[in-house]
Fold this sequence. Notes:
CATH architecture of the largest domain: Alpha Horseshoe
Largest sheet: none
Strand content: under 5%
CATH superfamily of the largest domain: Tetratricopeptide repeat domain
Radius of gyration: 45 Å
Order of helices and strands: HHHHHHHHHH
Low-confidence stretches: 1-25
Oligomer: single chain
CATH topology of the largest domain: Serine Threonine Protein Phosphatase 5, Tetratricopeptide repeat
CATH class of the largest domain: Mainly Alpha
Structural class: mainly alpha
Amino acid sequence: MKKKFLIVCFFFLFLNIGFLLYAQSSAAALDEFARAFDLFKRGEFNAAGASFGALSRAWSKDALAADSCFMAAQAYFNAGDYPTSYRFCEEFIRSYPAHPNIPDMECQRGRILFKMGRFKEASSAFSAFLEKYPDNPLYLTALFWKAESFYQLGDIAQALPLFKEIKEEWPDSDKATLAAWRLTVMGLEAREAMYLRLAAFEMGKNSSKEIEDMQQEPYREQRYLRHYFFLKSLRARSDIVEPAPSQNTRLNALLDAKKRALDLLVSLIDAYLKGTTP
């Protein structure tokens, strides 16, 4: 009987020791979490992220492990270390699927992907969030960043109606202001692109005209040369058939005038050719 009593006492002592150890571990975890959170509030995000990450690994069985993992993702995101933030984000979603902060982290996953320049994956993450949590307070935020992801991809056809929807359906929200600004920027970019196309078209026309003018110049020179040689042949022919002075005086005067006109035309053509010769 005494032996049984000792066994029962030992069992309760073991439970009490276990309970005390668990209480001590939780108190230590709370202290570490508080220190990490102080770093976060002071804006020391890299140090806070490292502390939260170490806490989530060291106290993986503790109730604060999930919150530490969540805060590590947030801290590294604020620090601009997006790959590390993404790693903790994925770890949180995978390890704590029933946690109440899962919707926040799924939205944050899209933001991290956007910051990493993975815009196609970001748009898919935001689409999944919008479909899964239509009544979540972060719905409008996810919708805006989905539109912004399409804009960064150059997919204006999908971005434009989303920005318009935000502006029209939530006119008093801060995202409506951002959407209106983005629509203005898109309008300016569209006009600029139109002006650039017009300038390129005009430049192409001018270039074609210059080429055409350059081609016409040799054609004109060739035409003048043909006229020149033709006139020279006429002058030579007129020299051959020119009648003797004893013949008709009127005919002589006509031929002499013709010769002088031909000489004048030939001299003009000579002057032109000398002026155009390089």
